[in-house]
Specification:
The protein is of the alpha/beta class. The protein has helices at about 15-30, 40-50, 75-85, 105-115, 125-135; strands at about 1-5, 5, 10-15, 35-40, 65-70, 95-100, 115-120. Strands 4-3-5-6-7 form a five-stranded parallel sheet, with helices on both faces. Strands 1-2 form a two-stranded antiparallel sheet. Strand 1 and strand 2 (about 5) form a beta hairpin.
Protein backbone atom coordinates (compact mmCIF):
# COMPACT_ATOMS: atom_id res chain seq x y z
CA UNK A 1 0.00 0.00 0.00
CA UNK A 2 1.40 3.33 -0.96
CA UNK A 3 0.00 6.78 -0.38
CA UNK A 4 1.01 9.31 -3.00
CA UNK A 5 4.36 7.59 -3.33
CA UNK A 6 4.81 7.12 0.42
CA UNK A 7 4.78 3.78 2.14
CA UNK A 8 1.87 3.24 4.54
CA UNK A 9 2.86 1.78 7.90
CA UNK A 10 0.32 -0.45 9.63
CA UNK A 11 0.11 0.14 13.38
CA UNK A 12 -1.38 -2.96 15.03
CA UNK A 13 -2.64 -2.50 18.59
CA UNK A 14 -3.50 -6.00 19.80
CA UNK A 15 -2.56 -7.59 23.13
CA UNK A 16 -3.50 -11.18 22.20
CA UNK A 17 -0.44 -12.68 20.53
CA UNK A 18 -2.46 -15.37 18.76
CA UNK A 19 -4.80 -12.79 17.26
CA UNK A 20 -1.86 -10.59 16.31
CA UNK A 21 -0.21 -13.44 14.40
CA UNK A 22 -3.49 -14.31 12.70
CA UNK A 23 -4.09 -10.71 11.69
CA UNK A 24 -0.57 -10.33 10.32
CA UNK A 25 -0.84 -13.61 8.40
CA UNK A 26 -4.09 -12.52 6.81
CA UNK A 27 -2.83 -9.04 6.00
CA UNK A 28 0.08 -10.73 4.19
CA UNK A 29 -2.29 -13.16 2.50
CA UNK A 30 -4.24 -10.17 1.22
CA UNK A 31 -1.09 -9.15 -0.62
CA UNK A 32 -0.27 -6.27 1.72
CA UNK A 33 3.47 -6.22 2.42
CA UNK A 34 3.71 -2.98 4.33
CA UNK A 35 5.63 -2.72 7.55
CA UNK A 36 3.54 -3.70 10.56
CA UNK A 37 4.48 -2.07 13.87
CA UNK A 38 2.87 -4.11 16.67
CA UNK A 39 1.87 -2.81 20.11
CA UNK A 40 0.31 -4.72 23.00
CA UNK A 41 -0.28 -1.63 25.15
CA UNK A 42 -2.38 1.39 24.26
CA UNK A 43 0.04 3.83 25.89
CA UNK A 44 2.93 2.65 23.70
CA UNK A 45 0.78 2.82 20.58
CA UNK A 46 -0.24 6.39 21.44
CA UNK A 47 3.42 7.31 22.06
CA UNK A 48 4.14 6.07 18.53
CA UNK A 49 1.13 7.65 16.78
CA UNK A 50 0.77 10.92 18.74
CA UNK A 51 4.24 11.21 20.30
CA UNK A 52 5.00 11.21 24.05
CA UNK A 53 3.60 14.76 24.34
CA UNK A 54 0.43 13.64 22.49
CA UNK A 55 0.55 16.67 20.16
CA UNK A 56 0.43 14.44 17.06
CA UNK A 57 3.19 16.35 15.26
CA UNK A 58 5.26 13.18 14.94
CA UNK A 59 2.62 11.83 12.51
CA UNK A 60 2.06 15.05 10.56
CA UNK A 61 3.67 13.64 7.42
CA UNK A 62 3.32 9.93 8.12
CA UNK A 63 0.90 7.59 6.43
CA UNK A 64 -0.40 5.20 9.04
CA UNK A 65 -3.22 2.71 9.10
CA UNK A 66 -4.28 1.73 12.62
CA UNK A 67 -5.63 -1.75 13.44
CA UNK A 68 -7.09 -1.32 16.91
CA UNK A 69 -8.28 -3.89 19.42
CA UNK A 70 -10.72 -2.35 21.91
CA UNK A 71 -9.86 -4.58 24.86
CA UNK A 72 -6.34 -3.77 25.98
CA UNK A 73 -4.76 -4.40 29.37
CA UNK A 74 -3.83 -0.78 30.08
CA UNK A 75 -6.58 1.33 28.52
CA UNK A 76 -9.72 1.20 26.41
CA UNK A 77 -9.38 1.13 22.64
CA UNK A 78 -12.21 3.69 22.60
CA UNK A 79 -9.90 6.16 24.39
CA UNK A 80 -7.17 5.50 21.84
CA UNK A 81 -9.63 5.97 18.99
CA UNK A 82 -10.90 9.23 20.54
CA UNK A 83 -7.36 10.57 20.96
CA UNK A 84 -6.29 9.67 17.40
CA UNK A 85 -9.46 11.08 15.84
CA UNK A 86 -9.41 14.10 18.13
CA UNK A 87 -5.95 15.25 17.03
CA UNK A 88 -5.64 17.58 14.04
CA UNK A 89 -2.56 15.74 12.71
CA UNK A 90 -3.96 12.20 13.02
CA UNK A 91 -7.73 12.53 12.67
CA UNK A 92 -7.63 11.51 8.99
CA UNK A 93 -5.71 8.31 9.67
CA UNK A 94 -7.88 5.30 8.92
CA UNK A 95 -8.64 3.22 11.99
CA UNK A 96 -9.92 -0.35 11.73
CA UNK A 97 -11.44 -1.50 15.01
CA UNK A 98 -11.01 -5.23 15.68
CA UNK A 99 -12.79 -6.62 18.69
CA UNK A 100 -14.61 -9.63 20.05
CA UNK A 101 -17.79 -7.75 20.93
CA UNK A 102 -20.68 -7.21 18.57
CA UNK A 103 -22.55 -4.92 20.96
CA UNK A 104 -24.50 -2.49 18.77
CA UNK A 105 -23.93 0.44 21.14
CA UNK A 106 -20.19 -0.12 21.17
CA UNK A 107 -20.09 -0.38 17.38
CA UNK A 108 -22.07 2.86 17.08
CA UNK A 109 -19.76 4.56 19.57
CA UNK A 110 -16.74 3.54 17.45
CA UNK A 111 -18.30 5.01 14.32
CA UNK A 112 -19.32 8.15 16.24
CA UNK A 113 -15.69 8.56 17.32
CA UNK A 114 -14.55 8.23 13.71
CA UNK A 115 -13.65 4.56 13.21
CA UNK A 116 -13.54 3.74 9.51
CA UNK A 117 -14.26 0.03 9.71
CA UNK A 118 -15.42 -2.18 12.58
CA UNK A 119 -14.60 -5.87 12.36
CA UNK A 120 -15.68 -8.46 14.92
CA UNK A 121 -13.17 -11.19 15.84
CA UNK A 122 -12.97 -14.01 15.04
CA UNK A 123 -13.27 -12.33 11.70
CA UNK A 124 -14.24 -13.59 8.32
CA UNK A 125 -10.78 -13.24 6.88
CA UNK A 126 -11.86 -12.70 3.29
CA UNK A 127 -13.91 -9.79 4.54
CA UNK A 128 -10.97 -8.64 6.62
CA UNK A 129 -8.59 -8.81 3.65
CA UNK A 130 -11.07 -6.87 1.53
CA UNK A 131 -11.51 -4.26 4.27
CA UNK A 132 -7.74 -3.80 4.52
CA UNK A 133 -7.47 -3.43 0.75
CA UNK A 134 -10.39 -1.00 0.60
CA UNK A 135 -8.82 1.17 3.28
CA UNK A 136 -5.94 1.56 0.92
CA UNK A 137 -8.29 3.54 -1.29
CA UNK A 138 -8.32 6.07 1.48
CA UNK A 139 -4.81 6.98 0.61
CA UNK A 140 -5.75 6.80 -3.08
CA UNK A 141 -3.69 3.67 -3.12
CA UNK A 142 -2.87 1.69 -6.18
CA UNK A 143 -1.77 -1.74 -5.14
CA UNK A 144 0.68 -3.51 -7.33
CA UNK A 145 0.94 -7.17 -6.48
Amino acid sequence: MKATGKEVTIVMVEDDEGHARLIEKNVRRAGVHNEIVPFTLGKNALDYVLGPSRDGLVSKDRYLLVLLDLNLPDMSGLDILAQIKGNEHTRRLPVVVLTTTDDEREIQKCYDLGANVYITKPVDYDGFATAIRNLGLFFSVVQIP
